[in-house]
Write a structure and sequence with these properties.
Structural class: alpha+beta
Radius of gyration: 33 Å
Shape: elongated
Strand content: 35-45%
Number of helices: 12
Number of strands: 35
Oligomer: single chain
Distance between the termini: 42 Å
Largest sheet: 8 strands, mixed
Length: 616
């Protein structure tokens, strides 16, 4: 028989710990894919040591395929959990010794525990693990577990069942000293489930939100959240009301703590990017003590998404981003719809080494305290992605903001910005800001695809880019007299007393010119009428609205501006949405941004697209 760890499963089923059987070798008999309540794919296995079988579950970071059927695997790191009085192995690290194709058949005659097997031999029996000339090398258990299993008596093994009341710690982790309480076993975050209540974890606090308050018909409340991290993974912890008073000042970012007696519930994935099926609630019974042990516990974990890949992420989903601050707007405020309170905000423009720029909004204290000098690198964990202006992100109360973090991604990005990024022509998602304009982050389309793909008929607008040439600019009624109030763009009516704005309910002594331009564009497939508002219209015409208003007195010069705007080619971002007028529904395309075609960047994009197609 191949080198299976005969007898190991019998002891593990009885409650033996992984450190008693380090790096065992089993055969995979069956693989089943399951989908968790959080829509995460997990894999359940049935493994054999040639004598007995036992269920196993691959950790969230592992995957399996049909090639693993009959394969021999070595468990480098695993847990032996008891769930609803049944034993199951949780595999966190493993490697394949022989593929299923190489082994080909089931080894031995393994059975469920309690059934007899003609090949059932002790783990450290007289055969010394050698069968058919092969050195099986079964793993002899250590200490009391070995004594219980050596004789092969089922009754003596059952005495180990009392050890199954608590989950098993890391195979490599020793009991941690916890103050004056003596030896206390420390369990990994990945082993926690709602079915356990006797556990202690040793974690690092990687981020902590501010305390948020609310008031509604059911009363007032307070809440804050923090993220715990250890070698095995992360978990979000949340505290409400009295627990806020107890733990908010105690927990500090980057310090380590022992935590026990928290409540676990299914995680709300819409509020975090942490890869854990559960989240923890800190209650008055929860115990938290600072840990002063020297350890190599990792720090904040990020799963950064390149700006160029943000288009594939669903709207309102959470993602981790990192970028260089290329510009920052002045601090402003908006009025909250629910409460009517003024909320501080600041919009940043970020860039990353995918050549994209991105709008990022900070709120409240982060917005007020942020210093953009020196083009800092910022990393945001659990930023909220929005399709506003095509694509943008926001730092919410569930997000963690780090400025100039000490991590390889930040150092790489800083080097990129210093050497080439600051001189690049960056592509942007939206029509405002964006590190020099240029191409857009959305998909490039041809005009014929508007009809073929029914663009604009969705519940939300469709954004896309075109490379198109201006064929005709409609000059009739493209200028109008607008309200002189900086915050108003409405048309005014000239009266004897001045210029009346219906929206402002005020008559002003003066007005300002604004543009609303219609253009006919053409590409290699078709033509399309588009609308350009004031800023985009000025870019098409090369004149601002005030200058064009002054030229209206000279018809020849006025017409020359429109003639000069034709037969120019642009890289244009469009917003397509259906519009109904006189019972007729049509797709209306609005220009969000435009720039002259960057031939070098366009060729590079086409080469990338060709290479992606070749890789399919």
């Amino acid at each position: 028989m191949e080198s299976l760890s005969k007898g190991a499963l019998k002891a593990l089923l009885a409650g033996a710990q992984p450190q008693d059987y380090p790096n065992p070798t089993f055969q995979v008999l069956n693989i089943r894919k399951i989908v968790t309540s959080t829509n995460q794919d997990r894999y359940r296995l049935m493994v054999s040591d040639g004598v007995h079988i036992m269920p196993a579950m691959l950790g969230a970071n592992l995957a399996a395929d049909d090639d693993m059927q009959n394969a021999l695997i070595c468990l480098d790191q695993y847990l032996n959990n008891s769930i609803k009085e049944k034993r199951i192995l949780i595999v966190m690290k493993m490697h394949i010794i022989k593929s299923g194709a190489e082994v080909g058949v089931r080894l031995g005659n393994p059975v469920n525990p309690g059934q007899s097997s003609s090949t059932d031999t002790p783990a450290n029996g007289s055969a010394n693990g050698q069968e058919n000339g092969n050195s099986a090398g079964p793993l002899a258990p250590k200490g009391s577990v070995g004594a219980a299993t050596t004789g092969g008596h089922v009754g003596s093994v059952r005495s180990l069942a009392a050890a199954a009341s608590a989950p098993t710690p890391y195979s490599h982790q020793q009991p941690a000293q916890r103050g004056t309480q003596g030896d206390m076993r420390v369990f990994p975050i990945v082993s926690l489930t709602p079915y356990q209540n006797r556990w202690t974890i040793r974690v690092r606090v990687t981020q902590k939100t501010r305390v948020k308050t609310w008031s509604n018909a059911r009363g007032d409340g307070r809440v804050f959240s923090c993220d715990f991290l250890d070698d095995s993974g992360e978990i979000r912890a949340t505290a409400f009301n009295n627990a806020v008073d107890k733990f908010f000042d105690l927990l500090e970012v980057d310090k380590m703590y022992y935590v026990s007696k928290g409540s676990l519930k299914p995680a709300r994935k819409e509020f975090t990017t942490i890869k854990n099926e559960y989240e923890m609630y800190l209650n008055p019974d929860t115990t938290i003590e600072q840990c002063f042990d020297e350890t190599d516990m990792p720090k904040q974990k990020f799963n950064f998404v390149k700006f160029s890949a943000l288009s594939a992420i669903e709207n309102n989903a959470m993602c981790d981003i990192i970028g260089v601050v290329t510009s920052a707007e002045e601090l402003s405020s908006v009025t909250a719809k629910a409460s009517g309170n003024q909320i501080s905000k600041r919009d940043l423009t970020l860039a990353d080494d995918s050549g994209m720029s991105l709008r990022c909004t900070l709120w409240q204290a982060e917005a007020e305290e942020f210093d953009p000098s020196g083009n800092p690198v910022i990393a945001v964990k659990s930023a909220k992605k929005s399709d506003f202006n095509g694509c943008s992100v926001s730092v919410s109360m569930n997000s963690a903001l780090q400025i100039n973090p000490d991590c390889p991604d930040a150092h790489r990005l800083r080097g990129w910005w210093s050497t080439e990024g600051q001189s690049m022509q960056l592509s942007s998602f939206s029509g405002s800001g964006g590190g020099g304009g240029g191409g857009m982050a959305t998909a490039y389309k041809a005009f014929s695809q508007i009809k073929d793909e029914n663009l604009g008929y969705n519940d939300k607008p469709d954004y896309f880019n075109v490379m198109a040439t201006v064929m005709y600019v409609k000059k009739d009624n493209c200028l109008y007299m607008a309200c002189s109030n900086a915050d108003c763009k409405k048309k005014v009516v000239e009266t004897n007393n001045g210029y009346a704005c219906e929206k402002c309910a005020t008559t002003y002594p003066d007005f300002k010119w604004r543009l609303l331009l219609s253009c006919n564009l053409v590409d290699f497939t078709s033509s399309q009428w588009i609308t350009g508002f004031n800023e985009q219209a000025e870019m098409f015409l090369g004149k601002n609205a005030a200058e064009l208003g002054d030229l209206k007195q000279s018809e020849e010069e006025y017409d020359a501006v429109f003639a000069a705007a034709t037969f120019k080619r642009y890289d244009i971002k469009l917003r397509a949405k259906t519009d109904t007028y006189n019972d007729e529904t049509r797709v209306r395309c609005v220009c969000m941004n435009l720039s002259p075609v960057d031939t070098k960047a366009s060729c590079r994009r086409l080469i990338d697209e060709i290479q992606r197609l070749q890789a399919l």
